[in-house]
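User: Before I run my own analysis I want an independent prediction to cross-check against. Here's the chain; please return only the structure tokens and, at the end, one sentence I can use as a sanity check.
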Amino acid sequence: MMSYHFLLASWGTLGNLSPMLTAARRLHRKGHCIRLMADPAMRSEVEASGFEFVTWRRAPTGVAADPVDVSDMQDFLRRAIFDPAALYAADIRAEIGRVPTDAVLVLDVLFGAALGAEASGVPFALLSPHVSLRPLPGMPPVTSGLSQPRTPEQRAEVDAANARQAETLNAFLPGLNRARADLGLPLLTDVFDLFDRADRLLLATSQAFDFQADALPDNFRYVGPLLDVPNWSRSLQTEAWRAPWSARPGRPRALIACSTGAQGQRDMFQRMIDAMGAVEIDALATAGPNLDVADLRAPNNVHLIRGAPHDLVMKDVSMVISQGGHGTTIRSLINGLPQLILPMGRDQAANAARIEAKGAGLQLPPTASEADIAAAVNRLIGERQFKMSARLLGEAIKADIDRSSLVGEMEAIAAAGRAARQQPKKRPLRKSA
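Assistant: Structure tokens:
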């Protein structure tokens, strides 16, 4: 079997890194060499997984790379994605120059890293560890929270939302094209044309979970969710884990899972916990790495801790309450659990829309009151159709994971790139005297 050298590039939080590490493990198990470029704060997680860690050097890191405040989306896009594009490109080019690389796997929001790979002449794939960031015909954009259009009026609403998203991003096209020109790359007519420059666009979700597009681009592949448990979560109380439930038989149980990212969710998480005081339920609330448990309070029926092995907890609960991160959402479905989602992040609203549209749960705004949260939880406990829908959807997702083509797709582009480099260069014809 041919062995290839892959460079994987991540950005921001552990929530973004975990799917990349899952991809890295799958490639490594097939005998390939892996380097993973990420924020310096991710070093321990990468090295604990046994991979060579490479840090961003010129590109921003920490909150400068992934700002917590996303209330001004234009400002976020400028600071996080477009202004530093040339810096990300320079870091990727330098790393490809340092170690021969057969192919690059880049997180989809790292537009600059994609430029660096393209300018180096190395095959690259964009990985979307959630629903598609690239707009697809007939499908609502990731940030809209809209559902699958069923009527001409809904279709018009989706088309208008896609047009607004394109207008928002294309305001940054001149700067992106300047970066491309400096790298000797052809200019784009639309920001999303960048996705068509990739050898593959790998969507790490289940097609069963997603809405249906009118058509898919030629380089687009569903490769199923990438759900390995992070090392930090695996190490937290895994050995000492003891279910905290009461001895009352038949009492419903819930997992309240806070996002691993810092999104200013403290007040909302507290309302989720407080709402359980009005519900006949036992709950386990995991605050995650960005909230201080000492800064939170809990009623008697809620056990509050920093972290727990969610895969184990989900086998012991009736439902999940979360912000709707892709990993938590998909894990819940695999375990046949209905969900209540209060989305705050950029892709969380899209996940919530799919859960609600497919009958596997409910969504509320992040400002929802304790009473509204309690009422939604009571519905999910009392109405059996939510659990039935979640179980059926979970079975379809497990089938998509089993037939994932991620490794094969990365091997294919690496093989094509290596073959192209090994082709003998044609010598120019000599002119006759």
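Sanity check: The CA atoms of residues 367 and 420 lie 54 Å apart.
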